[in-house]
Specification:
The complex is a heterodimer of chains A (249) and B (246). Helix content of chain A is 31%, strand content 28%. Chain A is of the alpha+beta class. Chain B has three domains: 56 residues, Beta Barrel (OB fold (Dihydrolipoamide Acetyltransferase, E2P)); 75 residues, OB fold (Dihydrolipoamide Acetyltransferase, E2P) (Beta Barrel), CATH 2.40.50.140; 96 residues, 2-Layer Sandwich (Ribosomal Protein S8, Chain: A, domain 1). Classes of the chains: A alpha+beta (249), B alpha+beta (246). Chains A and B meet through strand 3 and helix 4 of A and loops of B.
Amino acid sequence: MSGHTDMTLVNDEGIRIDGRRCDEKRPIKIEAGVLKNADGSCYLEIGKNKVLCAVYGPRECRPRHLQDPTKAIIQCKYNMETYSVSDRKRPGTDRRSVEISKLISEALSNVVQVELFPRASIDVYIEILQANAGTRCAGLTAASVALADAGIPMRDLIPAIACGKADNHVVLDLNKEEDNFGQADVPLAIVPSTDEIVLLQMDGNMTREELDHGLDMAFGAAHEVYDMQKAALKKRYSEIEKKEGATDE
Amino acid sequence: MERKNARKAREIVTPGEVLADADECRPGDNAYELDGKIRAGIMGIKTYVQNAVSVIPLHGCYMPVTGDTVIGIIYDLGPSNWMVDINAPYPAPLHVSEVPWKVEFGDTSRFLSVGDVVLLKILMVDESRKIQVTMKDSGLRKIEGGQLVTIAHSKISRVIGKSGSMIQMLKNMTDCRVFVGQNGRIWVDGDEENVAVAVEAIKMIEAEAQLPNLSDRVENFIESRLPQSGEDEEDTDIPADREESQ
């Protein structure tokens, strides 16, 4: 949104610079339970984004003044590695990571059954190993898989995906060039069982019709991401059974 | 992928997945009703109990329940209480009035110190999840010697087996004293070699908990590691340890 470029983001045939059509998302890979020492974990790749997420808890809430006597709190830490972007990212918390941590924690509070664990805290750590636009969606998608993997009671998983506008085309799942030089970026996260929206932001300008069209695409794509999340969680167990089943015969 | 196991009871479900129609059955543990559908509230194995459909969790932290017997580790001392780590999200204070000894005020360190392992019973858990534990019951004591194994608490029922069959087999075949805490901690004591095999067997139960014929697998495993057991220890003294029943 910030910069200007002579690059053609979407050509006359409706093909984007990475060869996708406007309604196509980047290839996704999700793996659950990748870290042994965390209670739950997830590794996720969407296009060139690489995200690692670890979940601990529910455990005793520290610092004590953050405790809520009626429910558990979700403490989320979103962090970009110094090597995640092309210039070195200055390490540590900044305005952007504080904002994203808060957004993700609030989105997750909608599905996690926090009232079962009063005074406790559930800690979510999201590490962005490689960034290429759409890391907040990737982080949230990974976090909900990691929470389910940790055996935390929750109503549903949360898939997240962005839509936006580039070169006057409404596009799905923006990549870095479209994010930087496009006209709008709209990340969306939903609860698939009810189609509730738990995260929606807009950076840039779109008309009402364009937004509606974009959200329609994003809703459809989010349901596809949801199926991948479920498959990733189940794959962990089918692999154990397959291996054991083979030794049985 | 779970189609291969034709048995309905072994299906793995993820949070939010539809388990059944609400007019067919009612939601059991870890399940909830939404718009006429019953959905899973946790990742686990779908099971039917009478006309309720529920989910048995695969992972998760231990939530203390009144009456559970647990194995705790002392991590802090107060003048009139000990703080015990029982593997739960909440601290568990053990008050001096709940131990079988007469303890003077400020004299707690003479009886239990940091790092000691104790068998405890959950006395009370209130709605804000404040826990009280006790050592005043038969069989509850400080544990010395032996080895402590920690496994996922959701797999504890597999270690015990149907009416204690698995744990009984483990005790008989390895000739170890075994005590199982509901919080996922297991204490094993006996001959060094035998303890090592028992610990490995427990780890194996944890890793393969969701597979069929678990007892046979464990039996074969112990037999392969301890060939002399089984025959000569068929009717030897069963350790007079307390049996966990659940």
